[in-house]
Input
Amino acid sequence: MKLSEIKVDPSCDEKTVAKYETFHKEVWEDKEYFRHGLDVKEGDIVVDCGASIGIFSLLAASKKAKKIVSFEANENAYKYLVENCKKIKKITPVNAFVNHREIKIEGDQIPNKIVDLASILEEYKLKKIDFLKIDIEGFEFAFILNEKEENIKQVKQFAIETHSCGFFSDRAQVSHFTLAMLDKFLKNGYDCVLEKIHVDTCCYMLYAKAR
Output
């Protein structure tokens, strides 16, 4: 699917459009979430945390995932997530802030609905998640590190973008959190790869796959 087939807010400035173009290329062409043996297969249950306008969710749908639950906190991006996915019944868009139930964050841009892994599994009646994509601007640390191991183990594959910018800007702290996430996955039976795909960004990709 080309970006021209995905609806974008026409009022977006050039910088935002360029961001969508880059993200589309990373997701659809470069397959950056599908590295080191990770993939979405027919019949999979997929959760997209930080779905934006639906670029990854649409790719998961094209790979014949059975069910996709897509979370986006930004109201304007969520509006276009709904628009882009409205004809695909297996995608469930949700306007929610992905974090952890023990972390309290306030702000005008944060939806009333806050979800973490435990609540996602319970509310959407998911006995397992085959692929969990996470791009939530620094809150990935709270989402993973505070979650119970029994819930982590319900997920077969994690593709996580880790941030040393945004909400968490202390790079020493971010390094500690990233290593702690790696340690948690390894101790729970996952094969892991930490990779800096883009040398010009502050982000790493963490891939974790259950053995």
Observations:
- The radius of gyration is 16 Å.
- The longest helix spans residues 171-187.
- Residues 197 and 204 are 7 Å apart (CA to CA).
